[in-house]
Amino acid sequence: MRILLLMLIVAACLVSYARSAPPDDQRMEWWREARFGMFIHWGLYSVPAGEWNGQTGHGEWIRTTAQIPLEQYDQLLERFNPVEFDADAWVKMAKDAGMKYIVITSKHHDGFALFDSKVSDFDVMATPFQRDIMAELAAACEREGIVMCWYHSIMDWHHPDYLPRRTWETNRPVGDADFERFVEYLHAQVTELLTNYGPIGIMWFDGEWEATWNHDRGQALYDLCRRLQPDVIVNNRVDVGRGGMAGFSDDGYAGDYGTPEQEVPATGLPGVDWETCMTMNTHWGWNQNDTNWKSTQELIRLLVDIASKGGNFLLNIGPRADGTFPPQSVTRLQEIGNWMKLNGESIYGTTASPFDALPWGRCTMRTGKETSTLYLHVFDWPKDGVLLVPGLGSPIRSARLLSDNDRPLAWERGDSDVRITLPPLAPDARCSVIALEVEGTPVVYEAPTIEAISSQFVDSAEVSLSTRSKLEVRFTTDGSEVGPDSAVYRAPIRVTSSGVVKAQSFDRGRAVSAVTSRAFEKVLPWPSRSVPARAGLLELTYRGDWNKLPDFSALTPTGSRLVAEFGLPAGFKEESVGLVQRGVLRIDEPGMYQFMLTSDDGARLYIDGRLVLDNDGLHSPVAVTGVAPLNSGGHDIRVEWFNKSGGVALELKMTRAGGALAPIDPARLTHEEDRP
Ligand code: FHN
User: Fold this and answer.
1) Could you tell me the residue range of the domain that residue 174 belongs to?
2) Is 556 in contact with 621 (CB distance < 8 Å)?
3) Closest ligand 1 atom to the C-alpha of 261?
4) What is the distance between the terminal CA atoms of the chain, rounded to a whole angstrom?
5) Mutational test site, ligand 1, from 104, 284, 290, max ligand atoms within 8 Å of CB
6) What does the pLDDT look like over 250-268, one tens digit per residue?
């Protein structure tokens, strides 16, 4: 009977959860409208301001990058007393900058909670400040109509049950650490954050990359958040499907949007929600020596570029230990806010550009049944006062200069573009916005793409032209202008001499798109050297804790051995490790050779001392490809790789251009024993 009653209760909960969980579009609506938010990294790590034992390059990772023992780091508790903290002032600065939501580190990797947590004594109530900062911030957001959101790190360098320990924490034994008990603690704090502070917009998880976290735990944490607040949005770092700093997850993993970090995707991703997070200088947490501030122009153009690809921009502030924003941040927020006051309608609630690329800037769009508005963000003001909008087929209703109080502008239709007459000077040299109203939803004729393995070739290059539309493509290969009498593209072109290929889309004999062009260059293959007799590669091993590839030539290897080929042995899982694998690659016939380097974490490929592929940085397994023109004979080849922590990957493939990429045949790899 009791089991039946329990089953009925569970069923009722699931039904109510299903009913209360709104459809994703409705839940994402405010976030898609917002487009612009403030990230805040603040905590005990703000006290040392990036400095420790004379080193000044630290940030929010200082406990690890300066290898500070727990007991010593805990002493920062008594120094955290941000007497200048003013939640209303913070929220007003965000609001005045045009930001619609705030994501703050409720707990970063160091485990310190900026809120009054009943399940931890490593929280703000253990500091002289003794105020619940999250509660004050949530109340200020409520007053100002800004959405309150929490960053929360899964990785926790303080909690005794979190595993793994830091590799350098040799004096902190695992003891009876129980990761399941840590997960209960994590759930308890997330429950506090989604119960005690009112409606929360986003749970922004992070630190999901260590081996103890997995999909089941990620899904369970996602479900917990949605049960506690069905409207809450949860980013993709709750689960383990994220592909490195590029930030997007494979299918089948929990999370409502992708999180590119310190980078903007090359193009938008139709139907995919994503948000780029970025620092204003180089550090997330306050570093008083970091003067590498992005200019306001760069920040405005980043916001525009991201919005033009359909993404959100989460711009970071690293407040100082006293609770104030760095003055450099304050100035930039004010200047961005002034720009948003005039041009915000070109950002909020817009969708990605209908154009593939615009030579002078970016475009965002607001579509409607009767009319749509294209917001043309001009970075490079045309010297002749005429702005060309390529490939736009829609009838024009009006044009106004948003940045100059909606000043009306004249326009005319050219063969394959619309020409807008502009005033001699841009109202805002950083980015001036024109609102172009068109009938219906915008019709843009897509310019052809010019595809080839490389723009360089040794003997010849195969060039393909394509468009997603059914339009006819005409082209030239000598750099001359494309016209109605130019050759019609029917099959790949073989280019045998240096020159420029130009292509344009035609509709019933009329040019309708922009012109695409690409220069091709015939190059000499890199000279070869003798091929040593000894089979295999030399591999040197190094130890260290890096965030990017070190200069291995300045380090002393901890080991060396011969290996048959590039890559890692089966089951290899070492952390804080670097490898250099080098030798001579035998090439049998001259030509352009394509290489693909896959790695986790960073790696680089050098041939004949030249950097051919750069896959450096902290990331999950990602691949980069590139080419090298090689003569027949021997070529010095070297792969450098490192792994900080977590998963590993290292794979190098090659092919003569046009062939299928495959691991390099060990028979092609030799070395000179006595080479230094
Ligand atoms: O390790 C963190 C880092 O400290 C910072 O919080 C960024 C911001 O997204 N996230 C992780 C690095 O990817």
Assistant:
1) 2-13+26-346
2) no
3) 9
4) 78
5) 284
6) 889 999 999 999 999 988 8
